[in-house]
Amino acid sequence: MTLFTPVFAEEAASMTPKPVNLISIDGFDINNSMVAETIATLLIIVVVQIAMRAPKLIPCGLQNFVEWVVEAMSDFLEGITGRATMQRGFWYFGGLFVFIFAENILSLLPGVGTIGYGHVVNGSFEVTQPFLRGPNANVNLTAAYSAIFFFMWFYWTIRHLGLWGLLKHIFGSQVSFPNPIVNYLFVFVFFLVGWVEVFSVFIVRPIAFTFRLFGNIFGGEFLLDSVYRMAPNIAFLTLIPCYIYELLVAFVQAFVFFVLTAVFTGIFTNTDDHSAEAENAH
Known about the structure:
Layout: E1 4-6, E2 21-25, E3 28-31, H1 32-52, H2 61-81, H3 83-106, E4 116-121, E5 124-130, H4 139-171, H5 180-230, H6 235-269, H7 275-281
Antiparallel strand pairs: 1-2, 2-3, 4-5
Helix pairs in contact: 1-2, 1-3, 2-3, 3-6, 3-7, 4-5, 4-6, 5-6
């Protein structure tokens, strides 16, 4: 049995959402999205290690930038999720934003998607299996983000409200009237609305989280590829506005994912009746 098996394509293929398998290690396939994810992770680790290898009381340079990013994100999160949840979950929210942003920027670097296995087609070399691919153009990765967030959301809300408090928050009536008949009517209405919320939490949000990020990043890759193929001889000019736009998309999509996860969590955890818990956590 061969331990390392390179995988080659026989025909040129247009860009597809499916990542390309590069090698197989004893039956475990490694695709180009996984390689890019690993590189993005290593880059983040290296930057943080360099910034904090000799921390100073009065930061400067890269340390100052890293601490500013952390402080800005923590202050922003505290206003959305509450202090207690921010302190419990900053590692997740902050790490998620940095990781997605780094992956999006990596996918725009020269050579990503253009260097790899291939063969000559119509007199020119056609890359059919690039070594690197934008990680967030892989729907499996964005689906993993959504799945992890679902479990973390469940943990944070249960930790903050308790199971009974979570059920009351979803199904319980949020208003009270002197007339008992009106109260019973609102209890029934909020019970029905609660099932809509359950459907949103378990079905709508995971799908939306998965395909919003994937669709924007894959669409950007397809845009760049299409513009290049239309006029490869002047691509250095036609691609400039596209790259500027995609740089904006790279930040916006990471920020949107970061904000939405925080907002959906803060709806349940940023409550006035749990301010004492937040103070104790602080």
